[in-house]
What we know:
mainly alpha
Amino acid sequence: MNIRETLKSVGPAIIVAAVVLGPGSILASSKVGAEWGWLGLPVLAFAVVLMIGMVALSSRLGVVYKGSLCDELASRLGRGTAVAVGVVLFGIVALYQSSNNLALGVGLEPLFLDDTGGLPEGWATTQIVILILANGAVIASLYLMRSLYSAVEKAMKILVLFMVIAFVLNLLTAMFGEAPERNAPAPEQRNLIPLIALVGTTFSVGGAFFQAYLVREKGWGMRDLRKGTADSVVGITVLGLVSAVIMVTSLLVFHRVSGAPENIHMGAIAGQLEPLFGSGAKYVFCAGFLAGALSSFMVNAAIGGTVLSDSLGKGAKMEDPWARHFTALALVFGMAVGVLGILSKENRDSLMLVAQALTVFGIPALGLAMLYLAMRPELKGERRVPPVLKAIAWVGIALAIVLAIRKVLLWFGG
Length: 414
């Protein structure tokens, strides 16, 4: 397959990448770059390799089995197991959706801050209205659109191209611009939550799990096994490169720079764009950040809605009635958490990172479900799953367990 054919066939993994690279991922990459510096890149690279392997595994499972993943699990382990998998993935998606809503709620704040850093009176009410209108529009579109997959694939390709161009230009300007003085002392203790959030957003087994459904939506079969592998490598590599660009830009602007904020917030991250866009940086940042939140609204919710519908035996396609209903439920849940975040006095950026980090707990269950299907003895000949993909799955599951344990220890002061 030549380069042109490869790029043309790419689609399912680009959707996964665009959904994973949402506002929480942008925030996590920025915080890791600012606080951890170059040490964050090896962690990101490791997570990207694991994600490529898991997406490639899921893509293969989607074409070698006659039924969907939940149908295959139900036929072997019972419907209850399939439902448990669907509920776990729906929970992960709901947490991602809450961070999308929190981002939408606070993403406009840098535009309206006064000289003292305050916001206009009644701003919380305005944010809540924005959330209600945005989610209402997405839910209406969900029920009005007949074919979801083709429209989503085209939109995600355009969005990813836009993000790549914008962030690369910004990085180049930061690299060749005037370097800031790095005379701030290294922190005695770094915050692990952004690093865990970065791994949780990049190594998203929930997104990888849905790859099996996307390749079926695209109509791929056994003859397309190589296309699935190429799709996985290209799509997730783009995800990793964009995250790396954001991280490096942040470390060039903030890492060990005297006067840089200790805790990076929305307004500070908007400052990353100043080398390229000057005083208009906050407008560019807010537009891109909000576009990232809105672009992943429906697709992210559709992941949980479709798999939950499939686990209950109600349909395995995004346009199936029950898949649409559960997708709408995920949207409503995310909106509710977003409203609570706006009304809360807690730091909304921290809430977004916690929501991303919490997704680590669902990874082992989904990874084990995929690994179980990959190791079935009936998969022989060309249907056999390569050992390297199984090995990557085992490493990913082990990493998820370690991160989950570490997260519990952090909560309890360990």
